[in-house]
Design a protein that fits this description.
Blueprint lengths: L1 E6 L4 H17 L1 E9 L1 H7 L7 H23 L3 E7 L5 H8 L4 E5 L13 H9 L4 E4 L10 E5 L6 H12 L5 E8 L4 E8 L3
Parallel strand pairs: 1-2, 1-4, 2-3, 4-5, 6-7
Antiparallel strand pairs: 7-8
């Protein structure tokens, strides 16, 4: 049974990632936790400057998280709870995931305060860099249907074998085809191969 952690900042990116994770978890089976790292500055931005004291904003965030968790449980049929953490985002997501032994973090590629000049937001990037568990980043327009084909970019490192074993285990329920890609920057030759698990 999987444990998914979904960071939520109430942006369209995070809500789409939540829906993507819920559809994925329907196949993988398990439970989900929503986490919001709350700071007054960030939530004032999210509420477009409406004047409230800190406790009012915190209570409002808690209500929204509770409502989201209830909707997920009702629509997708698995357990979903939530955590409201007070502090700075930075490493909080990865630290919470590691401490509570989650299997996967699923989050949007961007969030509140994003820049259109970047492919992946700074908070998402920091989470990917700091986490010691897999992080799935979901673009705004991504809609999960099934994973018929998965691409693995290999640099022929010693870690590849371990990572591949974990990947094969994770995607097994989807009966996906795995495609291996290696690009050599020195002579601009791309190596391509594929492996398909029998159905």
């Amino acid at each position: 049974m999987d444990k998914f952690l979904c960071p939520i900042d109430f942006s369209a990116y995070s809500l789409n990632a939540l829906e993507y994770a819920a559809k994925l978890l329907q196949i993988r089976k398990g439970s989900m936790t929503l986490i919001h790292i709350f700071s007054e500055k960030e939530f004032l931005h999210a509420l477009e400057g409406q004047k409230s004291d800190f406790n009012d904003l915190k209570d409002h965030a808690k209500e929204k998280l509770s409502s989201l968790a209830d909707e997920i449980e009702s629509e997708y049929g698995f357990e979903c709870d939530f955590v409201l953490s007070i502090g700075e985002v930075n490493n909080s997501i990865s630290q919470y995931a590691i401490k509570n032994e989650f299997d996967l973090i699923v989050m949007g590629t961007q969030g509140n305060g994003y820049s259109r000049k970047t492919i992946i937001g700074s908070r998402t990037l920091r989470t990917v860099q700091n986490a010691t568990l897999p992080v799935l980043t979901v673009p705004l327009d991504a809609d999960f249907k099934n994973w018929n084909s998965v691409v693995y970019a290999s640099d022929y490192s010693d870690q590849d074998k371990i990572t591949m074993q974990k990947l094969v285990s994770f995607i097994y329920p989807f009966r996906s085809r795995i495609r291996f890609v290696h690009v050599s920057h020195s002579n601009i030759i791309a190596f391509y191969s594929s492996f398909s698990k029998s159905k």
